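Components:
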Amino acid sequence: MLSARNRLTGEVVEVQTGDVTTEVTIDVNDETVTAVITRESAEDLEIEEGMELTAVVKATDVMVRSD
Amino acid sequence: MLSARNRLTGEVVEVQTGDVTTEVTIDVNDETVTAVITRESAEDLEIEEGMELTAVVKATDVMVRSD
Amino acid sequence: MLSARNRLTGEVVEVQTGDVTTEVTIDVNDETVTAVITRESAEDLEIEEGMELTAVVKATDVMVRSD
Amino acid sequence: MLSARNRLTGEVVEVQTGDVTTEVTIDVNDETVTAVITRESAEDLEIEEGMELTAVVKATDVMVRSD
Amino acid sequence: MLSARNRLTGEVVEVQTGDVTTEVTIDVNDETVTAVITRESAEDLEIEEGMELTAVVKATDVMVRSD
Amino acid sequence: MLSARNRLTGEVVEVQTGDVTTEVTIDVNDETVTAVITRESAEDLEIEEGMELTAVVKATDVMVRSD
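Structure:
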């Protein structure tokens, strides 16, 4: 069990592979969630479009905005 | 316009005020998103239960998990 | 499987509980690793001195220093 | 003196240079610690395999996991 | 209104575009502030040398050092 | 030498001590920079109003905003 508070599960809709980092875009209930992870992690998890993936975020990394 | 990629809008369902930090919990499409911000920010934004708030997260702070 | 690259396992040697956040100190091969997580996470994981715990860190959150 | 709580010293075992970021892997007591820093920082510190380097992490960036 | 406490406004003096991330350097009162953001964000904000830009940092991401 | 790109030196104008974390406000060329660090770090650095202190931020933790 991981301490990180936030988990949002969805389907990978785009993978953009760089030399060191990879950008992964996930569709979560019609909202887009974007993660930048290491290319090695993306390869270890065998991330590809269409697979299910959960975005995980530590609560101290979340800001809020009022409109 | 802010560079942070991720924005998730919902309703504040819980506010827990500490001495330096405040924990804000937002219901986003029946998913729970939790933010830890400074107490001063929470006061400046006049955060309270029931108001609409957007969680904002930088893409480099998002991890992913496969099951 | 989580994308975060860094995992360091050790024994909890100190838990300091605050109102919103909790500081957890882990002994990893005689090095001290300190985490600040939400108090709720600490309670959910039932963290207490003497238990084994793994510190997890995203690679983009690691700096380096040369001497 | 820097406020960041966590320092782990070891030997650089791999350097992967990208266009903007560089990934540095350090062997710390047979554990692997991976950092993603800017390429400019890597060049300023003249990071190369075999040199000693200390990984530095702020406590609020450390999560914990129980098994 | 965004909860992030720190805003530093200046002029963009350098833009280094990578495959996934872009490094933006801003001159703030003769101090240099460097941001690594996604290339997509840099394109969406149409960042280029000479434009005015504000660096934004969450307080939990700021360390301090005494000399 | 530390890899973190951003350093902003100024005078401490406010210290707010919590149970686990401490908020430190620094005046940097008439801009306010706010850091949330562990209370232990604040005690180790003997932070108090009027002393000179440098805010340190990793480039991947900096966002940008255009107006």
